[in-house]
Design goal:
alpha/beta; nine-stranded mixed beta sheet; two-stranded antiparallel sheet; about 40% helix; globular
Length: about 300
């Protein structure tokens, strides 16, 4: 599939996969910016739950392949993985991740430089997920202000960040690597779980030259009580599965529980702290009585 170019560097077939739900206008803007890449992807696949998630992108971007899958992020990403079997590298981008024009080129270069690299993740120069969120204008302003040449060298990391992570596809095919669909809806920590399974077969690195901005759009995210439940259920599930260390899981759960209960009476405008605290409490009680499981958020 890949061919040699410029000496030892390989030309790789690079796909971009985008799972989306309930954000057609943001998706359209994101694709417009993706279309400005200095190295265009060979294939762009958008996976949604229904036509209402897509808006008019099929009119604006006829080259985009669209798929449909269930509501869960893991289901959508697995559908994308099955569609891009002819490619060498798959870049997963969130539908609210705005990329620098060099992103695809930097990612391809990293994979072509070292066959031991199994996954990469880029440099998030601004992230609205922990605040009220960013708009596209703010993202473009931040991207214009970064130096064209990244100063830092690529470095090994524990896991890729789900809003922008890339995978060497021959490893996925050889080892039947898919996202765990037991992590429903938003699939909280699905990126860590997938990364740690991929790490058995190669390096995971951060590529500072692959830059972008995560808008952290609040629309179409799961309800506070569901996320609160996942903040306990998912780390416990992954710890039992062996893809997340007990110390990391305990620290993450405690940090989230303290933040949610500590801010429940004075919540931020953009965070449903009471709902998350209620979800935390229910999960802890179900951990005690043995009913805890990530899938139980579907009944909340």
């Amino acid at each position: 599939m890949s061919t040699t170019i410029h000496g030892n560097m390989k030309r790789l077939r690079v796909a971009v996969g985008i799972a989306t739900a309930g954000r057609p206008l943001i998706l359209k803007q994101m694709l417009q910016e993706l279309g400005k890449q200095c190295r265009q992807p060979d294939l762009v696949v958008v996976c949604a739950s229904g036509n209402e998630d897509l808006g008019d992108i099929q009119l604006e971007f006829p080259a985009v392949v669209t798929l449909f899958a269930g509501r869960g992020l893991a289901q959508k990403r697995n559908a994308i993985l099955r569609r891009v079997s002819e490619c060498d590298v798959l870049i997963f981008l969130d539908d609210d991740f705005i990329v620098h024009p060099d992103y695809v080129a930097a990612t391809e270069s990293a994979f072509a430089s070292d066959d031991a690299i199994a996954m990469t993740t880029g440099e998030v120069i601004a992230d609205g997920v922990c605040g009220p969120g960013l708009d596209v204008a703010a993202a473009l302003g931040a991207l214009r202000n970064v130096n064209r040449t990244a100063a830092a060298e690529p470095c090994d990391v524990y896991s890729a960040y789900g809003c922008n992570m890339s995978l060497r596809l021959d490893l996925a095919r050889k080892h039947h690597l898919l996202f765990d669909e037991e992590l429903p809806l938003y699939g909280w920590l699905e990126d860590v779980d997938f990364s740690r399974r991929v790490a058995a077969y190669g390096r995971i690195i951060k590529v500072p030259a692959a830059r972008g901005v995560h808008l952290g759009v609040k629309a179409a995210r799961q309800r506070g009580v569901q996320l609160g439940y996942s903040q306990v259920a998912n780390p416990v599930y992954l710890m039992r599965k062996g893809t997340y260390g007990a110390r990391y899981a305990a620290a993450l759960m405690m940090r989230n529980i303290l933040a949610n209960f500590g801010r429940a009476l004075w919540p931020e405008a953009h965070v449903d702290r009471p709902g998350r605290a209620l979800g935390n409490l229910r999960a802890v009680l179900e951990l005690i009585d043995g009913r805890l499981h990530p899938q139980r958020i579907l009944s909340l």
